[in-house]
């Protein structure tokens, strides 16, 4: 059976990186030089784009993407569009500027936010569903400006008069818009205003349930929408190596850290998606395999995407095909540390998926430690 190629993105760890969760051992600080290393590596390896996260603990995604766009060639940048944090007109000017600077390599990830405490720090004091209502107005104004309209708009959350965008975009009528939200309000926003609906890595049955709900809403509006999934990856040549790497990743995580993180996710946040992530394992180390090759260990201490596909290239490819069969066409991956794991995914998993860039190798007659050519190897010391 043949499959369409999966769109495969990676992740820029603008909040820091490391080899162990819950520990400062072998930790890498969030520095632009390191982001550049990751971005240039995935650009060469054949990843189509990168997600840049957003939040108080992250370097700004717009500024970081602007810097990385100047040192990469093909890579697309999925940056955070934050309704309520900036005005829609200002966001439209930012969008046009970065779309031109990157020569059309900009994608937008709408982030409404699911942590009221963090949102309060940004001056946002709206209840859950009201934030999606505000985002709908924001995206209406923003999209119309990018389409070249002069906008007059009066709504519950925004009022603009004679608003316009004087600079054109490379992508018309606007760059593609991605969005993830598990609540009814979030799914409504997705089908009304965006192009691709993202889900975190739940078991296939849970993902199928969400896709069916979003498709039904879209059909009722006479629309179609694409689907993507956000996952971590631990791919190794053998299954034993892969699961050993998963265990090693959380080997420094303490029970106290798990308890504190789970309390924050379930009590402080009003994100439906975060509650679904936490419910997969309930904070228990003995409940981390939530579906074949799907491991929830990352979610013990990390908010948001908390699951990883763990296994051999063939096993992980099979799991991705299962997601693809229910409608997923885009994967946004990551792994710790992100530089090394990008190479592992590209070198091990991409061939099993039919992805990657074919590269010219050394001639068969060249003799070195990676390949023996046609001549006898000379003795060396």
Automatic annotation (TrEMBL):
Its EC number is 1.14.14.5. Pfam families: Bac_luciferase. It is an enzyme of class 1 (oxidoreductase). InterPro entries: Alkanesulphonate_mOase_FMN-dep, Luciferase-like_dom, Luciferase-like_sf, SsuD_RutA_monooxygenase. Keywords: Flavoprotein, FMN, Monooxygenase, Oxidoreductase. The keyword Flavoprotein applies. It comes from the Bacteria. It catalyses: an alkanesulfonate + FMNH2 + O2 = an aldehyde + FMN + sulfite + H2O + 2 H(+). Residues 7-329 form the Luciferase-like domain. GO terms for molecular function: alkanesulfonate monooxygenase activity. Belongs to the SsuD family. NCBIfam families: alk_sulf_monoox, PRK00719.1. Catalyzes the desulfonation of aliphatic sulfonates. HAMAP family: Alkanesulf_monooxygen. This is Alkanesulfonate monooxygenase.
């Amino acid at each position: 059976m043949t499959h369409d190629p999966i769109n495969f993105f990676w992740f820029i760890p603008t909040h820091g990186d490391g080899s162990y969760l819950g520990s400062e051992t072998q930790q890498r600080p969030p520095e632009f030089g390191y982001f550049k290393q990751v971005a240039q590596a995935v650009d060469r390896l054949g990843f189509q784009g990168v997600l840049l996260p957003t939040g108080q603990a992250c370097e700004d995604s717009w500024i970081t993407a602007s810097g990385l766009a100047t040192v990469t060639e093909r890579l697309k940048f999925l940056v955070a569009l934050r309704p309520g944090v900036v005005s829609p007109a200002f966001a439209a000017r930012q969008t046009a500027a970065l779309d031109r600077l990157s020569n059309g390599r900009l994608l937008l990830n709408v982030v409404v936010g699911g942590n009221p405490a963090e949102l309060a720090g940004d001056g946002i004091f709206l209840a859950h569903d009201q934030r999606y209502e505000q985002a709908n107005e924001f995206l209406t104004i923003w999209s119309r400006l990018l389409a070249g309209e002069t906008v007059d708009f009066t709504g519950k959350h925004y009022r603009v008069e004679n608003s316009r965008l004087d600079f054109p975009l490379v992508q018309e009528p606007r760059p593609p818009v991605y969005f993830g939200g598990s609540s009814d309000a979030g799914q409504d926003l997705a089908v009304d205003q965006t192009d691709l609906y993202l889900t975190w890595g739940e078991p296939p049955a849970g993902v199928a349930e969400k896709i069916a709900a979003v498709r039904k809403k879209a059909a009722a509006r006479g629309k179609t929408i694409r689907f993507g999934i956000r996952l971590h990856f631990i791919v190794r040549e053998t299954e034993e190596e892969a699961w050993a790497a998963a265990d090693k990743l959380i080997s420094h995580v303490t029970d106290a850290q798990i308890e504190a993180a789970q309390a924050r996710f379930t009590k402080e946040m009003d994100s439906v998606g975060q509650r679904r992530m936490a419910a997969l394992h309930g904070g228990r180390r003995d409940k981390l395999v939530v579906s074949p090759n799907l491991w929830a260990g990352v979610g013990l201490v990390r908010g948001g995407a908390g699951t990883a596909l763990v296994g051999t290239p063939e096993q992980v490819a099979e799991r991705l095909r299962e997601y693809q069969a229910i409608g997923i066409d885009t994967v946004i991956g990551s792994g710790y540390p992100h530089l090394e794991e990008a190479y592992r995914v590209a070198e091990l998993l991409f061939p099993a998926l039919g992805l990657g860039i074919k590269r010219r190798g050394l001639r068969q007659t060249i003799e070195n430690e990676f390949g023996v050519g046609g001549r006898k190897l000379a003795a060396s010391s």
